[in-house]
Amino acid sequence: MEKIEAALSAAVRLARLNLQKHAPEMTSTQVISCAALLPAWAQGPYTAGQVVSHNGQPWRCLQAHDSSGDAAWAPGIAPSLWGPYHSRSYRWALPWIAPTGAQDAYQTGEYMVWTDGQVWLCCQDATVHGPDLLPQAWAAQP
């Protein structure tokens, strides 16, 4: 049993290293589907393109920075530093994150889970409002 556990642990470590290396080149849906293997965000230095998980959401670093000693630079708090991933698959739809601008707006073909638990498909590029304010940009999914 120890050998199986050691082998599984090694496989997870290898998968994490591989994901960290290739995440910047992967599609948003591929990254989201592997989010459980992403490193958790922690205060410290980041380079543009790095991918982390924070509060159950994968985020990509938009510009190099050092957040050491500054929790206000966390993903979801510092939109100029971090961009959320949006899924192009119903299966991997993530909770709605209100966009702050063009860098994190929803695009045609991206899914999200609205605040009531309903999955919605974006039908219009550069959508920064949810179905409550811009219903024509969204299609409710069964």
Please render the helix and strand layout as text.
Layout: H1 2-22, H2 28-33, E1 45-46, E2 51-54, E3 57-61, E4 65-66, E5 82-84, E6 94-95, E7 111-113, E8 119-122, E9 138-140
Parallel strand pairs: 6-7
Antiparallel strand pairs: 1-4, 2-3, 3-5, 7-8, 8-9
Terminal CA distance:
44 Å
Strand content: 15-25%
Stretches with pLDDT under 50, minimum 5 residues: none
Largest sheet: 4 strands, mixed
Overall SS class: alpha+beta
Q: Bin the helical content.
A: 10-25%
Average residue-wise pLDDT: 96
- Total number of beta strands: 9
Q: So how many helices?
A: 2
- Net shape: globular
Radius of gyration: 17 Å
Please give the order of strands in the largest beta sheet: 6-7-8-9
What string, H for helix and E for strand, traces the elements in order?
HHEEEEEEEEE
Structure description:
- There is one protein chain.
- This protein has 142 residues and is of the alpha+beta class.
- It is built from two helices and nine strands.
- A four-stranded mixed beta sheet has the order 6-7-8-9, with no helix packed on it. Strands 2-3-5 form a three-stranded antiparallel beta sheet, with no helix packed on it.
- It is globular, with a radius of gyration of 17 Å.
- The N and C termini lie far apart (44 Å).
- The mean pLDDT is 96.
